[in-house]
Design brief:
It is globular, with a radius of gyration of 16 Å. A hairpin with a 2-residue loop joins strand 1 and strand 2. The protein contains four helices and eleven strands; from the N terminus they run H-E-E-E-E-H-E-E-E-E-H-E-E-E-H. The chain has a domain of about 130 residues: Nucleoside Triphosphate Pyrophosphohydrolase. The protein has about 210 residues and is α+β, with helices and mostly antiparallel strands.
Amino acid sequence: MTPAPLDDLTAFRALAAERLGSFGHTTVPDAPGLRRAGVVLCAVEHEGVPSVILIKRAYRGRNAGQWGLPGGGLEDGETPEQAALRELQEEIGLAAGPADVLGRLDDFPATSGFAITPIVMVLDDPGPLTPSPDEVHSVHYTSLRKLAADDTPKWVPQPDGGHLLQMWLGPDWRVHAPTGAMLWQFREVVLLGRHVRVADFVQPDWTRR
């Protein structure tokens, strides 16, 4: 019997490469004051279960204490992919290269002034994590099945008539945009095969910091 992509990393890689290959991602155009960043949606096997790595940022500096994906701002001459892979190693000690990358999702225009490019990749044998205490408070895993579950995304009504996305990854683990929006697009495009956009998702005021 063919392994299910949500339960087998090899099967997931093949499916993700196919779906990302047919997905026409959007790019935020350059503009005065715009800064760019690359982040990694990195799938690994954790305790026998295909999962995506998330971090809680250190309680200092930019985005203090917020949920995030490994990644950061571009240095001179870098592409978003190069920045994302560099930051993956600097922040949590995982070495990866272009061959591990399966594709990318839409740039997300964060209210902090960054256009964030999500890079999707798989690591079969990532080795031990070595989080940088200057940048990372803790490292966490969410399974592909949890991301795909019907009750994971919740939409909270707002006074202006909009809805705020919360990705409920655990009883006390709720992730908002920008990271929540990128996780939701990963879920929809890669796990469920539905082409969706997220650039207009509501972002909480505290994500501006």
